[in-house]
Amino acid sequence: MADLVVAVIPARYGSERLPGKPLLPLAGKPILAHTISAAKACRAIDKVLVATDHNDIFAIAEKWGAEAVMTSSDLPSGSDRIGAALQDRPGDIVVNLQGDEPETEPQHLQRCIEGLREDKGASVSTLCTPLGRGELMDPDCVKVVCDQKDRAIYFSRAPLGVDREDLRRALNNQSGSYESAASRHLGVYAYRRSALETFLSRPPTPLESLERLEQLRLLEHGMIIAVRSVQAAVRGIDTETDLARVRARLMGKSK
Fold this sequence. Notes:
Layout: E1 5-11, E2 25-26, E3 29-30, H1 31-41, E4 47-52, H2 55-63, E5 67-70, H3 78-86, E6 93-96, H4 106-118, E7 124-129, E8 143-146, E9 152-156, H5 164-171, E10 183-192, H6 193-201, H7 206-211, H8 215-220, E11 225-229, H9 240-254
Parallel strand pairs: 1-4, 1-6, 4-5, 7-11
Antiparallel strand pairs: 2-3, 6-10, 7-10, 8-9, 8-10
């Protein structure tokens, strides 16, 4: 029997910088609706859940064809919200899909799920894309470096996989181009159900707390993360500036 693949979109109302973010309009529909549509269009996904803490988001999720699950507003992270939504629900592979990344495409999700199926030794699969100009030194851009089997070695907000002299020049604000063996990490994950349950049962780890990157908890506990590369311009929406930028890109695509 084939694995049951469930996509869960954590969507809380209380964003510090953009309250009600999942409900904000973008190209004719709420931000959350774009993510739901991408998940429903992915042929590898059997079911789409939205885990929320707000009635308006609950209603939007159901309107756009997802199963909405009400969760506590006190949960500390999106991953914990996913865990709460999955209680007593079936699912062999769980896709953690960010509700504030409306440019995620069905083929990205397909590739992430394929990564987990291809690498039988991996507990989790995720995605990366080539670094853009200026992203190497940007702490808001999470970098990943991989081994020869396309498995994650480390994730960081700091520069990774860069020539020593290039790094010195960059730190001294000297102009020039800097080559890196790192890629930009995209925040989409496919978990084996048992791996997600193990992850949620463990407390935050030292590197995770230092870098503020949940995926480091997986590496610190020895779990293997398969990484698959895609060509993507996906950016999360955290500020009004981000929202304006994505609106402009989507308007450009529609012309």
